[in-house]
Fold each of these.
Amino acid sequence: MSNAPTGYSRLQIRLHWVVAVLVILQLVFGEGIAPDFDSMLESGVAAYSAASIAHIVAGVAIGLLMLWRLSVRLTRGVPPEGAGITGLAGKAAHWLFYAILIAAPVAGLVAWFGGSETAGDLHTLVKPALIALIALHVAASLWHHFVVKDGVLLRMKNPG
Ligand code: HEM
Ligand code: HEM
């Protein structure tokens, strides 16, 4: 983008960290909804334990926050992403986060409210995919900070 901003806005930074915390909570506590889902598939009656309600509310929130973030990204823009093959990898990883974090709640909702085991199976793929992507993302952030020393990590701290 020719008139790309030099940094992320305060809103973009807040959205990044709120989503990061919610995603980590979903990964740590995600399995809490599985017993309710299994009994729902067997009996056809949905049981709403606190764990299931928390999973659904946090999951829907992540999806909505990602849509909000996407609209800000498309209207305000983001600072220039790196050049070359690593820059391209970073760009791909960022878009993959958007794709997964919007598709995951949709699959979860179809599984739960549609009683679909197939959607549930697809939804569980989210866990390994996100863990791999987050590991890569964090490693890349630390590499930028400690090896390349180009200030990329600080872009998610200081608005610009
Ligand atoms: C981005 C948001 C979400 C993330 C990161 C996420 C993550 C997870 C994780 C890690 C699991 C455990 C997978 C496992 O047992 O290996 C899970 C299970 C499940 N989630 Fe989500 N979830 C999200 C949104 C939702 C939403 C909005 C719903 C809607 C009801 C939902 C419904 C389910 C169901 C039904 C299961 C059990 C699936 C099964 O055992 O086959 N999730 N989720
Ligand atoms: C755990 C869930 C996380 C998700 C889903 C996530 C997602 C994203 C996405 C989509 C972007 C692209 C910018 C945007 O569109 O707003 C981004 C940028 C960034 N993230 Fe994360 N992130 C996570 C965790 C982290 C963590 C733990 C760190 C720190 C170690 C981190 C550091 C950064 C940095 C420094 C950028 C800016 C990269 C740049 O300017 O090119 N993220 N993140």
Note: Residues 145 and 151 are 6 Å apart (CA to CA).
Amino acid sequence: MTSGTSTVHPYTLIRSPRARRLTLHIDPERGLEAVVPARLGEERARREVEAFIAERSRWVDRSLAELAQRREALGTDGRITLGGLIPYAGRAHRIRAAEVSAIGVADGEILIPEKVAASEGLLQTRLTTWLRRRARSVAEQMIAVYAPEMRVQPTRLRIADQSSRWGSASADGTISLSWRLVMAPPSCFEAVIVHELAHLRARGHGVRFRQIVERHLPDEAARMRELQRLAPALGAVR
Ligand SMILES: [Zn+2]
């Protein structure tokens, strides 16, 4: 692994024997990374990477901005109460009473109907329920994308508050997920979905499991590491 600078963006070059083509992704700590097949020589790899980055500079800019937002989610206070700051989809959101008929999200804020906001207990229950529903809905959308592609069919989706784990897959085809994933960046949520769906085809974390995961989400491991870093912030919300 070596670092380099394209005309605009610094990046880390990784030459991997397993990579079949050039891919770019954002590592939460190292920032922009370019993975290239090891067979490409360093100089040629750099030329190709820099051309690739230049073509995709808008994606790179947007992704680096998202990374900054995720870091911000770590600065939340995790209080489900009026004025509290909680992470939602990887970004800090302020909980605020508003003239709305149902709980909703707008521009860095979670808006609570005045009637609900009037009672601390009601706000707690309603907002937690809403977050769990959002978690289910996001999970269902992601499963609808990945399950056919991965040729698996979960029998049941359970949204739980497993504090010790993000998700699990059981032999009967049930996928269980922590509702707290809805607060994580969607890319991390997606990694847990792919991880658990892969378990429907391979138990344990052996070679076969890794092959399935990497075929569908090559940077799953990096995304899971990021999720672990966010775990204290997400686990503290209550
Ligand atoms: Zn696993």
Note: The two ends are 41 Å apart (CA to CA).
